[in-house]
Design goal:
mainly alpha; about 0% strand
Length: about 280
């Protein structure tokens, strides 16, 4: 059976799939991502006011991760423009656990047992199979998605190291890192102007409202992951989080009435079996 921590990370995976579904539901994903970031940064601002500072040793990781997250946000929007959402999302999420495992071994000298290594491989392979099943992926689309996956792996390894240096202050670490999300509206205004940010508040209130909700769901999802990274193997935690792709398939079938083939369900079972391996 999965451990308590593993179960919590699986819940984070469900949250992650949910906010990505919200992002997909909005036509202007750059605008949606910006308002998600505003919600995240606003919550982070409140949290840092009422929590002690994380240990000074973790501050370089906070700064590095915050900047990488901004690059990830921009890369994610770009990858969605290059190819279908399902393909871009699954390739990005599927490639990251293997990269995280390699990064954790190289930078944090983190060992991983045979069962966990098998679980990571099964989850990554299953997720990529979900992405590629019946799909033609352009070189540009695949490159954009893999770039996004690399940024996911990079910030995960940075946060895995940083939260362990925070003297147990995972909440404060998360909040200070998410303060960097205030850079997203700055980038948006620089690219499109202030009116493009504020006009949709009146013209598209439901879209902006859903983006704000998505931001709240996102900060909860990744906050859980950072908490788990304090003690869990980075590759294993990353792989469990990326089972969000399976939840995305379920959401697509149940709520969006999308048809899911038997081959895709088989790939989902491989991902689920990999999650069981990680919980052993």
């Amino acid at each position: 059976m999965l451990s308590y921590t593993g179960g919590i990370v699986l819940f984070a995976a469900l949250l992650h799939a949910s906010w990505n579904a919200i992002l997909h539901g909005n036509r202007d994903r750059f605008l949606s991502m910006t308002w998600m970031s505003i919600a995240i940064a606003a919550v982070a601002t409140l949290v840092v006011l009422f929590n002690p500072l994380p240990a000074s040793a973790s501050w370089p990781c906070i700064a590095a991760s915050g900047l990488v997250h901004i690059f990830y946000n921009v890369s994610l929007v770009r990858s969605y423009r290059r190819s279908d959402l399902a393909v871009a999302y699954t390739i990005a999420r599927g490639s990251s656990p293997l990269l995280v495992t390699l990064g954790a071994a190289f930078f944090a000298h983190e060992a991983i047992g045979p069962s966990h290594a098998l679980g990571v491989a099964m989850i990554s392979g299953g997720i990529i199979a979900i992405a590629l099943q019946g799909q033609h992926v352009s070189r540009a689309g695949a490159l954009a998605a893999l770039t996004t996956g690399a940024t996911i792996a990079l910030y995960t390894v940075i946060d895995g190291i940083g939260v362990r240096l925070s003297d147990g202050q995972s909440l404060a670490y998360t909040a200070w890192m998410f303060l960097f999300y205030w850079l997203m509206p700055v980038l948006f205004v620089a690219a499109r102007g202030l009116a493009a940010l504020w006009t949709p508040v009146r013209a598209q209130p439901l879209s902006i409202g859903s983006s704000l909700v998505g931001g709240l769901v996102s900060i909860a999802a990744y906050g859980i992951v950072i908490w788990a990274l304090q003690s869990g193997a980075m590759g294993a935690v990353s792989a469990l989080r990326e089972t969000s792709v399976v939840f995305a398939v379920l959401i697509g079938q149940v709520f969006l009435r999308q048809t899911v083939s038997g081959t895709r369900w088989l790939a989902c079972l491989v991902v689920a079996a990999g999650a069981v391996c990680l919980g052993r």
